[in-house]
Amino acid sequence: MSTLFGTLPDGRPVLRATISGHGLRVSVITLGASVQDIRLKGVDHPLVLGYPTLEPYLGEGCYVGAIVGRYANRIGRGRAMLGGQELDLDRNQDGRHMLHGGSDGSGTRNWMLAAKAPDMVALADHLPAGHMGFPGAMLVRATYRILPGPVLKLTILATSDDLTLCSFAQHSYFNLDGSPTIAGHSLHVPAQSWLPVDADLIPLGPPAPVEGTHLDFRRPILLSGRLDGPPIDHNLCLSDRRRIYPQKAATLRAEGLSMSIRSTEPGLQVYTANHFSPGATGIGGAPYARHAGIALESQIWPDAPNHPDYPSAVLQPGQLYRQITLLGFQNGASRR
Q: Which residues are involved in binding beta-D-galactose (predicted)?
């Protein structure tokens, strides 16, 4: 069953669907195919950031919980070579670069509610040829399903009728302990390298070792010791190509709770919500300030079309793009 969550300025309804199973309850809205709330049995606070009304998602809450694409993260200068042609893409980051597929990327579009079951919801969208500068009419479908564990399984499928670029990412901000910040969380990411970036967060070149940097999470690291250092908004390199089966990407822990991420994607953008400032009230009952959550975005590496040695984001006509990302939740406190 779905309910009306709000109405867009142009009159289109935004729907909200809630699924549940195995002690997990997840609410998704059609705007951005966004995860609006996650609740775990025995825990009295939400595990993600979200808003109880639509209005913040149209401004300060843009991308919160959304599926961003058709190219997640950044493409430098809004330019990319594809099939011998230079693409001229929408530059929605300071008028210089493309971010998350442009100003009308999938994270800001109102998807169609395609299917619903007690433990599953599927959403779909159509991106026309030339949309945001990308060739190819693209069909994309995102399915959220709750599995035993509990595990929230996200499957993203996309096809195009022409050669194009394709990389989607789920953009939820997680906060497992309900505190004002994620300082009490520990993070483990088994990445040996990261992508150095310029001041606009555009990759500079080849990956660099994480050893000796503030991005070394090869063993669990308490985030309180990293939040006051250099800002964290970087791609950690998990693999040099996309994988068929999900592999370990990260583990986040706080106050007896843990969340593991496994994904088919070769990169993980780690972002500690540096830009947040108190505004609209969130689903936890208070506004979100700096470092209120952490985004862990499974993706192809940013700006890959401009780096031939990066994992490829090229999608051939008729080829199926398939991403699987698994979020596994455990409440250790409930078993003691």
A: 73-74, 171-173, 233
